[in-house]
Amino acid sequence: MFIAADHRPTPLPIWCELPLDYRPTEVRVQWASNPWMQAQALRLRREVFCAEQGVFQDDDLDAIDARPDTRLLVACADLAGLPDEVVGTVRIHPEGEGLWWGSRLAVATAWRRHGQLGSGLIRLAVGSAHALGCTRFLAHVQPQNEALFRRLHWQTLDEVQIHGLPHRLMQADLAHYPPCHTPWAGLVLAQRSRP
Predict the structure, then answer these.
(1) Can you tell me the distance from the alpha carbon of 97 to that of 99, in angstroms, rounded to the nearest whole number?
(2) How much of the chain is in helix, strand and coil states, percent to nearest 5?
(3) What's the pTM value of the predicted model, to 2 decimals?
(4) Can you tell me the distance from the alpha carbon of 36 to that of 22, in angstroms, rounded to the nearest whole number?
């Protein structure tokens, strides 16, 4: 067999050329449905509340996380239509007749400019609790997030200290949160701005 000395293989066509800083444009907000989602959500909480904000020393887990009626919600960046990475989280739990609480809202630093993650997590948190009989939904909100909650139809009830830091006790106006009966499927958020 004779092969010419100057024969070079023909380069293959490029099928998909994504920028190196590619980020998915859609995020699904849902109840955590897999162990990897729960693990990544707890890791994100440690990053935000321990490493970044210093609210807790090593871990933010508490008795609420151990309760069987606590629900962990996640915002997952989708890749090819499948959840790939947890980029936001919040937890909810009932506390008596019709009363539900939300807490530990966290969004990954690189995703805070998405434009809808925090509000999407809040909408699903309140909407899914509403579907489960919630008649009053409360949260202790850090002051820097108070304006976001007000835009989402929350009212400030009081100023309190939680873990040595100022917080606002806030209540959701349930009239703006229709019941969500499919929290495992959740909702899809399109990106407004580049993360």
Answers:
(1) 6
(2) 25, 35, 40
(3) 0.85
(4) 22
The DSSP element (H or E) to which 148 belongs, if any, is: helix 146-151
C-alpha–C-alpha distance, residues 126 and 102, integer Å: 8
- Tell me the domains of the chain and their CATH numbers: 26-190 (3.40.630.30)
Number of alpha carbons in the 13 Å side-chain half-sphere of residue 70:
14
Structure tokens at 131: 């579907």
Structure token digits, residue 29: 């907000």
- Residue 133 falls in which region: left (phi positive, over 0), alpha (psi -120 to 50) or beta: left
The greatest distance separating any two alpha carbons of the chain, rounded to the nearest whole angstrom, comes to 86
Q: pLDDT 10s digit of each residue in the chain, 195 long?
A: 455 556 666 666 666 665 566 566 689 999 999 999 999 999 999 999 999 999 999 999 999 999 999 999 999 998 777 778 999 999 999 999 999 999 999 999 988 887 789 999 999 999 999 999 999 999 999 999 999 999 999 999 999 999 999 999 999 999 999 999 999 999 888 765 544
Q: How many CB atoms lie within 10 A of CB 117?
A: 25
Distance in angstroms (rounded) separating the CA atoms of residues 119 and 125: 10
